[in-house]
Structure formats: structure tokens, C-alpha cells
Amino acid sequence: MARTTDHLGxxxxxxxxxxxxxxxxxxxxxxxxxxxxxxxxxxPITRFPTEHLNTTISGTVDFLESSDKGASALTYExxxxxxxxxxxxxxxxxxxxxxxxxxxxxxxxxxxxxxxALYDAANLDLPIYxxxxxxxxxxxxxxxxxxxxxxxxxDRLADRFGTxxxxxxxxxxCASGATAIQLGVExxxxxxxxxxxxxxxxxxxTAEALIRFSxxxxxxxxxxxxxxxxxxxxxxxxxxxxxxxxxxxxxxSLESALARGANVLGIVRGCGEKADDFHRTRSKPDGSPAIAxxxxxxxxxxxxxxxxxxxxxxGTSTPENDKMxxxxxxxxxxxxxxxxxxxxxxxxxxxxxxAAGAVEAVFSILTMAEGVIPPTIxxxxxxxxxxxxxVPGVKRDxxxxxxxxxxxxxxxxxxxxxxxxxxx
Length: 424
What we know:
Elements: E1 13-22, E2 25-26, H1 28-36, E3 43-44, E4 57-58, H2 71-90, E5 101-104, H3 112-120, H4 128-139, H5 142-147, H6 152-161, E6 168-170, H7 176-189, E7 195-202, H8 207-215, E8 245-253, H9 254-259, E9 266-275, H10 288-301, E10 310-312, H11 319-333, E11 342-343, H12 346-349, H13 356-370, E12 372-373, E13 396-397, E14 402-409, E15 413-420
Parallel strand pairs: 5-6, 5-7, 10-11, 10-14
Antiparallel strand pairs: 1-2, 1-8, 1-9, 3-4, 7-8, 9-15, 12-13, 14-15
């Protein structure tokens, strides 16, 4: 019988439900089929004008009802859809989850069409600033107010799913989704809850966001063939592709899951984090924070380096981050890193920002459950300075029992997760 406590005497944390939405489609079935087929979800932007912009492609989820209603509405819909799938699959009640909620979400603000609507409704005779204040006081509807509040999405989700206690909204840049999982794991390990709902959601691929990232020179400008633009670890990579998506995981103590006969999809064995203050967007050249995060995750899991069988890479397709990730992994795993399979889901779905760590954790769970490693597509021009087995182009059948999933965010926020197919 499997142990229900880990090497530190903490409850073992199981995953009993997962859900996902990306530019590849809605739900586990469609996403996994597309991902393992090596299909890209990157396409030209149609949601807003792109004339005079350097980047005109993205991984937006234009098939959803809220796709043109602003970042706040879309982020909520993405989170709700993935959470519905995860909670339903877990066998728990959708309206009575009875565990804490941890939501990774982008910092939201009023969308421009809402700002302009408020402005147009105000007294034209007032000076501009007073006019805006009057509009806010007189015309601001409750839903407009909520759309500008960072915690509003989590509040709505808490009501929808019947989670317990104060819902937590967090933002740790590109590591946010993994951090939401870490917080859920730690709440269970501390004995504060038998289960937790961790969600990463991001519907913020707006014109404003595109311009901001373009000004940082972070986005790919290879617009001619959108499906070829995201090319992690390739020599001709030139930036990431902005994308939207969501993933949710139902986390549960193994003891609780077994007691109710739940289907255990995988185990979160360890979480590691390390921040640095090197630069607002750049990675520290020596990779030391990423190295520390990987080592912390392994130590938390009570595992040796040689026990990791697959790495789900952060793999953004930016020149600097991919180089740093290779350096950090090579430092931790040595020469063995040349043979450990590593792939980047972002080559197909783009960078879902706040959702990325959760999306990639779900895909890591599926990799172990299905015995299939998704490929890294667009690896047509290997970088000789980055020696990795990136599972190029085509999926690989492989029985994987342990995964390291990396999330290395802007501002030096790094979170790594170690997952296993089965408990020890």
C-alpha cells in the first residue's frame, strides 16, 4: 500500500482532477490530441487592429464567448471552464468544493472600451480630470467596478465552486500558475485542508499588453508564418508569442483521495522557488536563481537528480531565457542533460503568462498518464550552444514516471514542480 506521508512526514499530495483551455481548443481531449500531433495554435490577430505593430500574431482563444469583452471577463471565463472540467473529473461537487482556492491571474484593469464609455457618459462641460471623476462616481456600474479589482475574479470563482475561506489571487509573472499549485500543495501539507483548487488563467492578450511586451523586445516578429514563430531552443528564435489560456488542478491529500475512491492522476512530490533581483525582465546570466529553484524542488521532493525522467521546459523561445534554462539544467544534471528528454509546450500554444505554469503542469501529468512526450515543434535550426534532446517535431512514446516542470518568470520569479505518476 502506498505511503500517505512523504519523507518529511507531510501528507502526500495527489492530483485528482485537471482541466485546460488553450489556443489549441477547450478541454483535455482536444488539447492533448493537438499537442501530441504537433499542431500550433498560433495565428494572426483579428481581435484588434495590428497596423504599424511589429508583432501581429498570438495564441488568443477567439472561440470563447468572452474573447472580445476584455481581459477581466475573458480571464474569468477561462478559469471557470478549466475549473469545471477539473472539479467534475475529480468527482467532487462543483458548488461545494470545501477547500481553498488559489488563482494565478494577470493584474487586471479597466479595458479601454469601458474607460471611453465612462468618459463619454460624463458632463462635457467639466475639465478632463474632473470629467473622469464624475463619470466614475455617477456612471460606474458594479460590474465595471469589479472588473478593475484584482481579487474580483477569484471572488466570483469562490462563489461558483463553493471554495472555503478567503480566495487567494496571486501574480508572480510567468511563474504564477506554478505558484498557485505550490500554495495549494503547501496548504494540504500543513494540514489546513484536505483539498485545494489551484487555477492559472490569463486572458490578457490585449493591444496594450502586446505593445508593452514589444517595447521590451520580448516578442517574436516572425509574422509571415505564425505557426512557425515560437521555436524554443532553436538558433533563430527571436522572442515569445503572447497567448491566452487556463488550467486547473484539484489537489488532494492522498489519504483523502484513497478514502473516497478517487482516481489519482499523479502526485506533486516537490515544489521549489527562488527569486533574484538581477533585472526587471532579464535572467541572471549565471543561472543561479533557476539552479537554486530546481535544486529546491528536488530537495523538497526528497529525490536525486538522476530520478528525473523528463523535463517540461519553460522554453519561451527568447534568446536569453532558453540559453539560461539550458545552463541551469546542465549545471544541475550534468552530462545527463544531453539525454533527458525535454520539450516546450510553448512551441505550440505560445506563452500563456499567468497560466503557463498550471497549463504545463497539467500537460506534465498527462505525459505520465498517457505514456507520450509532446514534441517541441519548429526545431529546424538547432542551436549548437544548447545541447538538449528537445523531442524535435514528433511526439515520443515513453513511460515517464517523474517530471520536472520549470517556470522562470520576469523579475526573477522562479518556481519548479516535481511530479510523479504514482506515490512512493
